[in-house]
Every structure is written in structure tokens, then in C-alpha cells.
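Table S4 entry, PLP-dependent aminotransferase family protein.
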Amino acid sequence: MILINIDKSQSASYLYQQIYKEFKNKILDRTYKAHEKLPTKRTLSEQLGISINTVTNAYEQLLAEGYIYTIERSGYYVEEIAQFSTTKNANDDFPSYLREKGKNRSGSVSLSHMTADIDEFPFQDWLKCEKEAIKQFSEELSEIGHPQGPYEVRKTIAKFIALSRGVKCEPEQIVISSGTQPLVKQLMSLTVDTTTVAMESPGYPRIYSMLTNHIQLDTKLIPLDEHGANIEAVDQSKADFLFVTPSHQFPSGKIMPISRRIELLNWALKKENRYIIEDDYDSEFKYQTDNIPSLQSLDHHQRVIYFGSFSKSLLPTLRISYMVLPINLLKIYREKFSDLINYTNTLSLYTLHHFIQSGMYERHIKKMTQHYEKKRNLLIQTLKNTFKDTCTINDIPAGLHFTARFVTDKSYEEIERLAEEVKLEIYTLKRFSLNDEYKQSKNIELIIGFANTKTDEIKEAINRLQQIFTA
């Protein structure tokens, strides 16, 4: 009889796991043969000096996983188990080049454009709305919701963007998801013919990578002129979809004037099933003047697909974005995605519904606009005082970032390396130049974000930036 070794100083719950593991290992290494009878529960409990219940728990776990089987009034037997076809070798170890390193932010300061000021987020108000959502929509929270998101939430969003952005739509036209990327991917799958997409460069590298590498679409890059996407290049692209950011071009910050907007709308009408994707990613924040109406508000022919997000105005980690589909595309979407389970957190969506309905969202936006404008002004003034005439700021009063051009002989690669050394988080224009053709001659252009830069860290951030250029 083969005995097993256990450490009886451990708790009863851990004892049964020891027995289970011992038997499992001896069965797998063929110490116990197929169909060999195991000791009875009473026998094993007496041999090991433990309770029958502990042995029973171990045997039941082995039985549940298929290591043993039982014959009524006879006992437990070893199951016939296939052997693994190969043995472990050194190559089974996890490769070091795939291991991830945790970020050490100690001592770092940021001029990143990719986040919001979490210190100013009204968590208590959000939690109040969450409690209200649980109370009012408890039944809906227990069910699989509509593929486009809950109707009540879409109705609230439709009303909000009509008032704030002039967007004309019904709740049925809104599709909510966990980010812009999944929405773009769904949108691109609605067409059966080969699709050509055009997008601004510089622009979003993640969207560009998804279109070209993952969806593998023919993607044309459109250069910018003083009014935004160059209309001649747009026309020459012969694109089916044009991806633009007219209210605050990313990353240049340009605001597209009405004349160029009308030209783009006229371009869309020149070909059947041609659309403009308007990404209104940070339109909530406009300084000195009122918000710029959306491009979709000018569209009378259902050719603009409006994209919005709550990532900049609330928290990026909430992952709530939406698109407004023209009616003919909505029909195709309903046919194709009728069985889709919506990607977003339903509780977060109903919480957002109450957050907007209660007026808390509007108050939050007003407060944050004033807060961001103060930080933005302080940051620009500190840059001017520090760099004098060696820095040119593209001062467009909108959004959560602006661009600045610095006179230097250093390369983009040097700037990025030195920024890492002084623990300053910055992003250069090189990152967003989608065709890798970025101007280098005596100038470096940076995307300066200020949402997550603490007011008392602005001076230190600019001092570190100066260190980079003078190193």
C-alpha cells in the first residue's frame, strides 16, 4: 500500500487539499495505476490520524475532476487517464521579453493629454447617482440589455447632445459602447464592399493602426492646412469614410471654420454611401467663447456619423462612448448586431443617466471648464516666461491640450529619451505623424496636456522641460 505524506499541523481545510494534491500527483505520474483501488475513507483517516470528513472532501474533489471513479459498495478506483504527449522543456518558461514592468511614477510630473483631473471628480455625487440607479433600475440590471445600450440612457444622451452640440437624432440612432475603437470597428463592418477610409495626419495612431492592421482597410492620410483637413486631398482620396475632428483637431488643436465644414458636407454628397465620421472627443471644454456647434448639426442629408465620449469630461476608465448613426446605416446595424451583448457596464450607464438628469453633469462641466482654463493660462504663461522666443505656442482656447514648437538642434528621439531621464511625461508630434514624415529642421513640436497636471507642479514640469532642451 502506497502511503501519502501530509503536514498535520495545517488546518483541516488545508489538510484535504494536501491529500487531494498528493493523490493527483501520484495518479498523474502513474504511481497509482489505472483501476487500482484506493484506501477506504476510514482506512486512510486511521492511517493519517485525521477525520473521515477531511478524506471525504479530498476524494470528492478527485472524483469531480475525473481522477478517480467509484463503484457502489466497493470503493474508489483510479481512472484511466491519457498521458501528456510531451514533457516540459526549458522553452516552456515565460520569455523575459514578454514580461511587463510596473510603472514607477514616484517623482514624475506629467504634461500628458490623455487623462482628466481625477482630484476634481465629484465621486460623492456619482455614488449618489449610482445608488439611485440601483434603486430605480434594479430589474434592468439583472437582464441582458439592448445591443445599443439602455433606451433610457440613449434618450438622455440624445437630449443632452441636442442642447449642447446641436446634434439632431433620435435615441434609436445612438449606439453606446466601451470606447471609440469598438464603435469604429462595428461601423466599418457594416459595408460589404471594399472600403476606403481617409483620416487626418497628424491624427490618432490607435485608430489608424486598427484600420490598417486589424481591419486591413485601404486608409488614406489627409494632410492639414490652416483650416483643417485639406479639401483637395480629401477629394483625391476617393474615400467612402472620412475621419475628422473638426471642433478641436487632434493633435493640432485647429478649429475647422464654417467654410471648410460646408466643403466637406458637399464632398460627402458627391458619392452614394459616402460618410464623414465626426469625432467630438473633447468638445465640452471651450474657453473665452461659446462651444462650436457640431458638424452633424449642419448635415441635412444624413451623411455625418457623430462620435462622442465621456472619457475627457468624466473619467477615462469609465469607458463610455457613443455614435449617432444615419438612418440607413442604423437599419443595417440592427440587422447585423441584433444579437450583440453591449460591451459597457450597465450600472455605469444608468448612473450616467441620473448624473445628467440631475444637472450634476452640467455643473461638473462648468466647474471643470473654469478649473482647466486657469491651469491652461498658468501653463502657457510659465512656458512663455521660461522659453521666451524659442517657443511658439499654438494658443487655441479649446480642449485639454495645445501644441508648442521649440527651437532646438535635438532630434525627437533625443527629446523622448531625455524626458524619460528627468521623469517628465510628454508626447511629441512624431507619435501622431501617421506617415512618419514629420518635420525635423531646427524645430520640435510637443503636444502639451494640462488636465492631470497639478497646479503646484506646473513650474516644476516646465523646469524639467527646459532641462531637456538645454541638456
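The radius of gyration is 30 Å.
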